Amino acid sequence: MNQLDDLVTAVRASSKYKYVCEDYVRNLGAQELARRANLKEAVKATKNKLHQVAGAYLDSTTRYAEWLQQLRAVQPGDMSALRPVCARIMSHHASTRERLASLDSFYAQTLARLAPVHSVLDVACGFNPLAIPWMPLAPGATYYAFDIYEDLMAFLHEFINLCQLHGDAQASNVLQPVALPQRVQLAVVLKAIPCLEQVDKSAGKNLLEHLDADHLLVSFPARSLGGRSKGMLNNYEARFMELISGHNWQVERFEFASELAFFITK
Ligand SMILES: C[S@@+](CC[C@H](N)C(=O)[O-])C[C@H]1O[C@@H](n2cnc3c(N)ncnc32)[C@H](O)[C@@H]1O
Question: Cα(148)–Cα(17) distance, rounded to whole angstroms?
């Protein structure tokens, strides 16, 4: 085994990161090995980075099998009965937990001009597919979701089926080009760009330019995980303007308590 294999094994031996897809740990690990003095430091730096971009948002206790049972107890396709169960589960990921208070208006407002939506790609989705019961989707719509956790994606795959939608949830690193079987009507990139840009500065630009979608719903957090706003709104709005500069895209802006969202028509 070489050093990179040792690093991947060491990182995935920890309960917090054992389900992070291997190729992503390998990519991050290779970067850290090139920068650090030895394997031990590179393992520590890789875990720190994983914490910053993903682990910090996710509760330490995830009970996917139990949650699936609770979701399956609801009459198939009954979206209003699914809502309270989904809201409880979404409270276990900081990003969706912050959105819960605005969920009744979030998708109704941002997707009003597109409803009913026929196909969605949810990039670095976290627990957001559990908000499907609030989304104005067409019956039998297609929903693709990507994040780096294998166990979360297996759970969301079952949930997408339970909602009687087509599509898939796959453990995948979205810093690599996202391959889809078809072009989608809408890609959602919620509060993900600041995380992704911590690893790759051009991630936001690449996603906005290359995602195979007619429309994009992009958002940025209005406050940090610690709860302070620190002028974040202005900074992220400026960053977004930079990302779309030079493109003749139509943009609508929406401000919610926990995030600033932009609906883009390409
Ligand atoms: C701030 S959370 C946003 C989650 C979700 N989009 C939402 O708004 O509720 C960032 C998410 O990005 C995921 N993530 C970080 N790096 C990623 C990568 N390279 N590829 C795919 N997902 C990634 C994390 O696991 C985490 O779920």
Answer: 10
Q: What is the mean pLDDT of residues 4-8?
A: 97
Question: pTM here?
Answer: 0.96
Across 149-167, average pLDDT:
97
Give the torsion through C-alpha atoms of 187, 190, 196, 202, to 10 deg: 50
On the CB side of 37, CA atoms within 13 Å amount to 0
CATH architecture label of 3-53? Orthogonal Bundle (1.10)
The candidate with the shortest Cα–Cα distance to 259, out of 190, 187, 189, is 190
Q: What is the pLDDT of residue 227?
A: 67
Looking only at Cα atoms, what is the longest distance across the chain? 56
User: Across the chain, what does the average pLDDT equal?
Assistant: 95
Candidate of 16, 19, 20, 57 to mutate for ligand 1, largest count of ligand atoms within 8 Å of Cβ: 57
CATH 3.40.50.150 fits 64-265, yes or no: yes
